[in-house]
Amino acid sequence: MSQHPLVEALREFAPYVHAHHGRTFVLSIPGEALLREGRRALIYDIALLRSLGVRIVLVHGARPQIEARLQAEQCHCEVVDGLRVTSTAAMTSVAAAVGAVRMELEALLSTGVASSPMGGARIEVTGGNWVVARPVGIRQGVDFQHTGEVRRINVAPIQAALDRGAIALLSPAGYSPTGEAFNLLAEEVALKAAVALRADKLVYLHPEPSAATPNQWSLATAREQLAHTPDDALFRAAVEAAEAGVPRVHVVSAQSDGALLTELYTRDGIGRMIAADGYDAARPARIDDVGGILQLIEPLERRGVLVPRSREQLELDIHHFLVMTRDNMVIGCCALMPYPEERMGEIACIVVHPDYQREGRADMLLRQAEERARSEGLERVMALTTHTPHWFVEHGFTQADVSSLPVQKQALYNLQRNSKVFIKTL
């Protein structure tokens, strides 16, 4: 009998509650998200993150609110290369719009309505002159006046606010040491804050509905994707953040109800994520990976695809394994068993979890196993298979006789399995 869906949900998100507790997340919320009817649910979800122990720096935008204020006051501002030229008169409108958005956010985060998800919660929201800015200046002959860029983030007061459990609220405005105020891009404020605070995650919320398929990319893959969409300013900021060292950068819909929580508390999420350290890169296996490897390979052992391995044998051989993990779950593995006297290694136990197949992970495992073989001075690798001969041929292996195997491996060859032998010269 299957468990209640709630039980399964609790089991899935509980590890993330533990993993995220005490971590620093910078969330960038666009002004468009605060104009839609579902804004209360989104803000409640952000407050829920804080109640689960996440240290939150919330950066809000105000682009549509500024546009509306400027139109109402009949104040025209030129936009050049995506930057608004902010005159002294326009800066007054900008300040009013940003202040109004900030007040609304503070009010929503203070809501303790019994029927809301945050009923009874007491969450402090605080802010200050924490963003030091400088003027953009004159570019290509255009004086941007009060349009600025982030010079630095004052980290100490933000850390102090986070230490006492408050949500630190940053606006798209900054101040110079001489007392001038500047209109800033919220995306840049979020990026600079995440880097300065050494945040664990930077989450860019965007005003569009969720994409049909979530994506998790390495930094290299994200750069390639950006080359095809150079006008995607938000994704460009996400890539820049990853390049600056933020470990995980997420781009998530602010319009789809629950998307933020789904992205952060489920294994595959619902948005786009860039991992600065290579999300799916294989690493050497550790002894605490044994249980995960066993769960991965046992279904194939029962079907006769793999030769059964005992836990004891796996523990002895664990230093020969590479693993791919997704949030501490082993989703792929591969072993390289060396035969140094023959300068040959055996590629064995290439397995990828069914949910993560057809995305090139087996290819990546093979490549990294081959790189390890080269680093160990091996000249050839071999593989024995009963089910995937064509895959090995596609990856440069050629079929060989059992007599081509190392002597020690020949002695262990199972005639009943009648595995085909494939060899590749490195």
UniProtKB/TrEMBL annotation:
Its EC number is 2.3.1.1. It comes from the Bacteria. It is found in: Cytoplasm. Pathway: Amino-acid biosynthesis; L-arginine biosynthesis; N(2)-acetyl-L-ornithine from L-glutamate: step 1/4. Coiled coil: none annotated. CDD domains: AAK_NAGS-ABP, NAT_SF. It is an enzyme of class 2 (transferase). One of its GO terms (biological process) is L-arginine biosynthetic process. Its main location: cytoplasm. In bacteria which possess the bifunctional enzyme ornithine acetyltransferase/N-acetylglutamate synthase (ArgJ), ArgA fulfills an anaplerotic role. This is Amino-acid acetyltransferase. It comes from Abyssibacter profundi.
